[in-house]
Amino acid sequence: MFQLNDSEEIYSFENEDEIKKAIETDKIGEVILDYKYKSITYKMNRIKCIRLSDFIFWIQSDFIRIHLGQLLCLIFDLIKKVQSIESQGIEHYYLDLNRIWLQLQENSYPSIIYQFLYYHIHFTGYQCPFYEKKDSSLPIKASIKIKEIIQIIINRCFNRVHLKWTDPHKREELYNATIKPIMDLCKQNSSSTFQIFAQIQETLKQYKYEDDKKNNSVQTLETDDKINDFIGSQREKAISKVKTDLNNLIEFGSQYGQIVIDFLLQQQIPIISKLLESYSKVKLEYFIQAQQLGNNLQKREIKIKEILKQKVQILIPESLKKYDEYFKFEITKQEIGTLEQEIITSVLKSQQVQYFNNTYWLHSNNQHIDDFIFAAIPKIINQYVDDKLEELFTYKILLLIDELI
Q1: Which segment, 48-52, 280-284, 363-367, is predicted with the most confidence on average?
Q2: What domain of life is recorded for the organism (predicted)?
Q3: Neighbour count for residue 34 (Cβ, 10 Å)
Q4: Rounded to whole angstroms, how far apart are CA atoms 361 and 52?
Q5: What phi and psi values does residue 326 have, to the nearest 5 degrees?
């Protein structure tokens, strides 16, 4: 539908053996492990990979169209994924919509009209707490958390699914017959994913789920709206312009970074959705918003650098005292200044800070996001100071040895 830039996600991890096992079983994109600082970086091709929180938002905004059959299959596949990893002894205690990805198969991409959707589900963020939340360290098994996620998906998406009739009473009857039993199971502490799995299987069978490209049965139930309703529609005619406009938005936002792109898409997609019936006349306005958010992010980075500089200027002299017992090297002001800059740069690139650049969803409606970012700094700065000082003294020792030779 549109050409998102490649992006990176970065998370922390605790146990090397467990994270290796998780990656072997559940890998998406290019994965880079940093064992020293216990971070994992995912490099994503965003044309082929969609974050579940984005996907749900597009449905909720009535931007993309999917059938109820496709929505139930998504939930079905999520449960299968949780069952698969847990059957192999892999636990994910920090699962949410932002850490679930749909890796699309060839020529399969959601659109403003119905499309066949084929994908593999992957999880990221294994072992990484939610640094953007107050209860960040509270672990919950994926088989429990997925029940909460299913409820969120249904609550946000069911009313956006178009059925073959518009009578609200029939919609309510269908909800009670197909969705409510799933929701009830998700709300029960004693229910298992296997019970939910079986319930969805039964619903798909009872309502004659079809997935037949030859006959244009776009992964539908017998109660779903049909694809032919949108052939030649205003929505279909708008596809080309919507694609062009969103690609232009992404290109403009890229000068400020992925967070700004995510923000602009969240702002503009609901506007586009409301105007699709007369979209040929629409002109999107987002330049000022992008500049304002870009400026705010820049101000935040300046503030982080100021905090770091203050802490580093205290920590370096304290840490140097540890070396005074063993070495009598002269440390110049220039070397101290270089150390400060290297430490600040390293902390800014650390997983604890870069984590907050994973997605704008971490920032959306989060009044305390700055506090969470600033709180992450003291937890890591000591290690970077120690590492850089060790590098400096190692260099001086090697230099001295070279001079003596």
Answers
A1: 48-52
A2: Eukaryota
A3: 14
A4: 11
A5: -115, -30
Write the CA distances from 100 to 49, 129, 200, 350, integer angstroms. 10, 15, 20, 22
Q: What are phi and psi of 79, to 5 degrees?
A: -65, -45
Report in angstroms the alpha-carbon separations of 203 from 98, 125, 152, 153.
28, 32, 19, 17
DSSP state of 178: I
Instruction: Look up tokens 């017998």; give the residue.
Output: 222
Q: SS3 for 278?
A: helix
Class for the domain spanning 7-231 = mainly alpha
The whole-number pLDDT of residue 293 equals 93
Find the range with the poorest average confidence among 85-94, 191-200, 268-277, 393-402. Answer: 393-402
Q: What is the mean pLDDT of residues 328-339?
A: 84
How confident is the model at residue 320, as a pLDDT? 85
Q: What would the DSSP string read from start to end of 7-45? A: EEEEEE-S-HHHHHHHHHHS--SEEEEETTTTEEEEEE-
Dihedral over alpha carbons 297, 13, 102, 66 (to 10 degrees): -70
The answer to whether the CB of 343 falls within 8 A of the CB of 385 is: yes
CA end-to-end distance (rounded Å), the chain: 65
Give me the DSSP letters along 207-268: TT-EEETTTTEEEE-TTB--GGGGTTSHHHHHHHHHHHHHHHHHHHHTTT-HHHHHHHHHHH
Indicate the residue type of 386: D
DSSP state letters, 53-121: HHHHHHHHTT-S---HHHHHHHHHHHHHHHHHHHHTT---SS--GGGEEEEEPTT----SS-----EEE
CA distance to 28, 137, 329, per residue, from 45 (Å)? 9, 29, 48
**Residue that the structure tokens 């000591």 belong to:** 382
- Secondary structure tally for the chain: helices H, strands E: 14, 8
Tokens of 4: 């998102």
Average pLDDT over residues 95-106: 96
Q: What is the pLDDT of residue 229?
A: 57
Tokens representing 43 are 């490099």
Rounded to two decimals, the pTM is 0.92
Degrees, nearest 5: CA angle 52-71-364? 30
- List where CATH 1.10.510 sits in the chain: 7-231
